[in-house]
Design a protein that fits this description.
single chain; alpha+beta; 60s Ribosomal Protein L30, Chain: A; Phosphoribosyl-aminoimidazole Synthetase, Chain A, domain 2; 2 domains; seven-stranded mixed sheet; 9 helices; PurM-like_N
């Protein structure tokens, strides 16, 4: 039996297009606003500030240990909303399909996308499908938009970060990047490495509900990993960030495989992790709360925010220097840097990633 595949006619708006929409998309995506099949969804939003994001997913391969492009599209979009303090509500999904792409693979992706949306408590309310000629795509790309609502009074941002704050993460580092690399290269490890791909809004909403005044800032460390994301924070605030190498939660198999391949886990992408900058007096309570959540069992405090030294670092007696600045917001005019404190007490600079070793990671 010949495997059914995407034809150019699936994108012409005619009978095959309508069949594709009915038999695959509407089979799994069932929100009333979408099933109306009008040119725009009419939606109700609660009071609050509107948060909106857009993203495009071109991951290769499209199926990988721990996820696929459908799951990634929902989780990635939800997470971009969640770390701003928004409660994600609605998503759109635009599919760019290459002629010859198997219909069975499309159905598998759509089913995964729908499951992840249900898990995250968001609705897919609008969509689109385009078909490009064979050789002009790479099977499937997905473009999304996401809408959420930020409650009045929620205030997260660079302007809230100050010396003395603690940097937390909800779990292990580098899993997604290494999962993609191993699948792409056909490398098998003795202990399989799976992507951490997951929607984080359950975690972020719990934190904001329980610690509304102590959470300063959140960000998901996707492309460029933890090191690059924290460089963006340090450069935007003028603060230094000192990471403790011995506190970094990195799986042994990820660390070993990364060393073998000449990669640093701190620069590998993550798709189910959130970096949290929090007030130091609440850090232990926040960690305890994270560890009670299924996506936070490996949560750790990994570093500290300090006053910027203008790019220089002069620790005394092998330790990070004590803070001399009064607590308070730091001007973005400073030259903040990210440093890694080694178990021997030395420090090395963690620069922003220059040249992604893993393109097509998300």
């Amino acid at each position: 039996m010949t495997e059914e595949r995407i034809l150019l006619a699936h994108g012409d708006g005619g009978a095959l297009t309508h069949r594709l929409v009915k038999e695959i998309f509407l089979r799994y995506l069932r929100h009333p606003a979408l099933r109306e099949l009008t040119d725009a969804a009419l939606l109700h939003l609660p009071e609050g500030r509107l948060a909106m994001t857009t993203d495009t997913f071109v991951v290769k391969p499209i199926f990988f240990p721990g996820g696929d492009i459908g799951k990634l599209a929902v989780a990635g979009t939800v997470n971009d909303l969640a770390v701003t303090g928004a409660r994600p509500r609605y998503l759109t999904a635009g599919f760019i399909l290459e002629e010859g792409f198997p219909l069975a693979d499309l159905e598998r992706v759509v089913a995964s996308l729908a499951r992840t949306a249900q898990e995250a408590g968001v609705a897919i309310v609008a969509g689109d499908t385009k078909v490009v000629e064979r050789g002009c795509g790479d099977g499937i790309y997905i473009n999304t938009a996401g809408v959420g609502v930020v409650a009045d009074g929620c205030d997260l941002g660079y302007h809230r970060i100050m010396p003395g704050d603690v940097v937390l993460i909800n779990g292990t580092i580098g899993d997604h990047g290494l999962s993609i690399l191993s699948k792409r290269a056909g490398i098998e490890f003795e202990t399989p490495v799976e992507s951490d791909c997951a929607p984080l809004n359950g975690v972020t909403e719990m934190l904001l509900d329980r610690f509304p005044d102590s959470i300063r800032f959140m960000r998901d460390p996707t492309r460029g990993g933890v090191a690059t994301t924290l460089n963006e924070v340090s450069q935007s605030t003028g603060c230094d960030i000192i990471l403790d190498e011995s506190a970094l939660p990195i799986r042994e198999e990820v660390q070993g495989a990364a060393e073998l391949l000449g990669l640093d886990p701190l620069y590998l992408a993550n798709e189910g992790k959130v970096l949290i900058v929090a007030a130091s007096d609440a850090a232990e309570a926040i960690l305890s709360a994270l560890r009670e959540h299924p996506l936070g069992s490996d949560a750790a405090a990994i570093g500290r925010v300090e006053a910027g030294r203008g790019g220089a670092f002069s620790p005394g007696a092998g330790q990070a220097s004590e803070l001399t600045a009064e607590p308070g917001p730091v001007s973005a005019q400073g030259k903040g840097r990210v440093f890694l404190r080694t178990p021997l007490g030395g420090h090395r600079i963690l620069d922003m990633l220059a040249g992604d070793p893993l393109p097509r990671i998300c």
